[in-house]
Amino acid sequence: MTVSGTRFRGRALRAAFLAAAAYCTLSSLWNIAPAVAEVPAPAETVPPADKGFVTKIVSAAAQGCTAATVAAILSAFTEPLVNRLLVKRMTFGQAFAEMTFAATAKFFLTTFPTNMLKFPVFEVINMILSFTSLSGSVRGIVNGFLFCTIMLP
């Protein structure tokens, strides 16, 4: 395949990606579904029970795991790219051309376990402290102190 054919395919792929992103973003603006008559709520509704302590802690840990996965995926690509830009003094095009999926996947295996240690622990500490009567700024200081103390070793 010629170089111009490869460039065309890359541009077409980018255009398709941008079109899909625009569609997903803008599709919520229009109400595609037909209008449905609202059904009134029954007279006697029971309010949902408040989540318990353990449920909130497990939920916070799950949110931390999700955040750790997303952060690991992003940093597996961006950290090597930034290192090439700043340490090797490459141009963006040169640094981007050097990036391979194999290198990114290999670095993901480094970032994922460390993020899985950090993010859930922070979220759990934050959720535990939300049950205290501490003010927001004091809770943040205590959260930072506990997180750094636990994650230091």
Structural notes for this entry:
This protein is mainly alpha-helical. It has five helices and no strands. The chain is flat and about 60 Å long. The mean pLDDT is 78.
Quickly list its features.
153 residues; single chain; 73% helix; flat; mainly alpha
Query: What does the largest sheet look like?
Result: none
**N-to-C span:** 53 Å
Order of helices and strands: HHHHH
- Net shape: flat
What portion of residues belong to β-strands?
under 5%
Helix content: over 70%
Alpha plus pi helix count: 5
What structural category arises from helix and sheet content? mainly alpha
- Count all strands and give the number: 0
> Unreliable stretches, pLDDT < 50, 5 or more residues?
none
In round numbers, the mean pLDDT is: 78
- Report the radius of gyration as a whole number of Å: 24 Å
Note the topology.
Layout: H1 3-26, H2 53-86, H3 92-98, H4 101-130, H5 136-151
Helix pairs in contact: 2-4, 4-5
In short:
This protein has helices at 3-26, 53-86, 92-98, 101-130, 136-151. The protein is mainly alpha-helical and 153 residues long.
